[in-house]
């Protein structure tokens, strides 16, 4: 389960496209700043077929339309698979049960519906106090240190605490859960050694056992958490235990590996744009806009994939059945046809239209309200509590896949 999640659609497609122009997205220069490369790709018309047969959507309109077009799905349709798609298919033949992120209706609809109550408006409102408390605790410690790592001391632990609480992981298990989650999360950047592969396998097994034990525990001592609710669904025959594990795994990855980068990328953009940082300090209510603008300007998930379920004419192009389309969400946010001055980071920007950082259509990010809440609370707290925050050393970027930082040394500056 987790190996496939780790090799998730986004990173995997970029990694598998060696020798192709997509590989250029992975080159170190483009990894540091992929946006000029996206602009060049957009100038080729917004949708083109790469030399290895993967379609690439880079304009806002094409990305938006692919995500909402029900002629595309995330699973291959029956029938022959073009070569460009083969590697992806092999990833799927491991016998693991996929999470609903990787499923088409009707399974996707059924499983997403079971997880949805955890992200309803009343629930999200209820999480605010928890997010604020976790934020304050972490910043207390960071402030005491004076110099700290924005990622490992703040942006990383915050979403992990929230997702642990949401899932209903008991405090006694959180250290282990954190350790396992980190091993799984790191593999999103690619599994680069046999040792890492074995560590990942061991982590998957342990996590699997941990979730199974938790299900047993929640049957005896139910709580108001996701694992308890999914255990009920399991006992009512609405989902299998394997589907429950896959759902928990999906939420774990989402909780560990995305929001950290919203907070990290947002802080970096603010410190790189002193006028914006000053505006946020002046008016911390702009934190909502700062989180939103970060998602447009430098989104953690840069791309996703869809596959045509039939031979079709899409935007005048003949897309064959089972041909994949790489949807470059990060490029959509910088499309001048959709956003004025798209390369300018402006937290007061009133978005003319929704950015695509949370994707679109039926797979629109289920955790978006939670991610927005965490981003807003974190950026607001930094502006209010650490007004002299400054970069202490150049940040280090993640290797690939997810866009974000591994290290970002900062100082709290003058008291
Ligand atoms: C799906 C982005 C935070 C749970 C997605 C997708 C994207 C995304 C792009 C859809 C991929 C596709 O269409 O193929 C993000 C970003 C986040 C974030 C940028 C933070 C800034 C979260 C959080 C959770 C979450 C905190 C939950 C704890 C999910 C789930 C799905 C999903 C369950 C699958 C939805 C489906 O397939 O129906 N996310 N996400 N996400 N996300 Fe998030």
TrEMBL record:
Keywords: Heme, Iron, Metal-binding, Monooxygenase, Oxidoreductase. It comes from Nocardia iowensis. InterPro entries: Cyt_P450, Cyt_P450_CS. The keyword Heme applies. PROSITE patterns: CYTOCHROME_P450. Belongs to the cytochrome P450 family. This is Cytochrome P450.
């Amino acid at each position: 389960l987790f190996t496939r999640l780790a090799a998730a659609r986004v990173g995997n497609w970029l990694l598998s496209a060696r020798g192709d122009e997509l590989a250029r997205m992975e080159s170190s220069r483009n990894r540091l700043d992929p946006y000029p490369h996206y602009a060049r790709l957009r100038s080729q018309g917004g949708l083109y077929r790469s030399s290895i047969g993967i379609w690439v959507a880079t304009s806002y309109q094409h990305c938006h339309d692919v995500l909402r077009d029900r002629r595309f799905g995330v699973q291959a349709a029956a029938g022959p698979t073009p070569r460009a798609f083969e590697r992806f298919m092999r990833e799927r033949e491991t016998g693991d049960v996929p999470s609903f992120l990787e499923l088409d209706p009707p399974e996707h609809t059924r499983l997403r519906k079971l997880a949805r109550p955890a992200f309803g408006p009343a629930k999200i409102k209820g999480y605010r106090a928890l997010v604020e408390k976790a934020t304050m605790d972490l910043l207390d410690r960071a402030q005491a240190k004076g110099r700290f790592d924005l990622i490992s001391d703040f942006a990383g632990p915050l979403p992990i605490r929230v997702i642990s609480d949401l899932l209903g992981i008991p405090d006694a298990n959180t250290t282990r859960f954190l350790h396992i989650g980190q091993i799984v999360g790191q593999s999103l950047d690619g599994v680069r050694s046999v040792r890492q592969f074995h560590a990942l396998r061991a982590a998957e097994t342990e996590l699997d056992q941990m979730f199974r034990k938790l299900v047993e525990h929640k049957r005896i001592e139910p709580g108001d958490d996701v694992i308890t609710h999914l255990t009920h669904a399991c006992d009512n025959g609405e989902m299998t235990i394997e589907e429950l594990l896959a759902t928990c795994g999906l939420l774990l990855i989402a909780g560990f590996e995305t929001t950290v980068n919203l907070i990290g990328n947002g802080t970096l953009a603010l410190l790189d744009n002193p006028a914006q940082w000053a505006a946020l300090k002046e008016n911390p209510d702009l934190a909502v806009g700062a989180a939103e603008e970060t998602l447009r300007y430098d989104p953690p998930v840069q791309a996703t994939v869809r596959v045509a379920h039939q031979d079709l004419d899409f935007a005048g192009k003949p897309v064959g059945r089972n041909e994949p389309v790489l949807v470059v969400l990060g490029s959509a946010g910088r499309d001048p046809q959709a956003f004025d001055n798209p390369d300018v980071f402006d937290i007061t920007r009133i978005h003319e239209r929704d950015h695509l950082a949370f994707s679109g259509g039926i797979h629109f990010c289920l955790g978006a309200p939670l991610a927005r809440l965490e981003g807003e609370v974190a950026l607001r707290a930094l502006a209010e509590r650490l007004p002299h925050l400054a970069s202490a050393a150049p940040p280090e970027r993640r290797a690939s896949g997810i866009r974000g930082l591994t290290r970002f040394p900062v100082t709290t500056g003058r008291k």
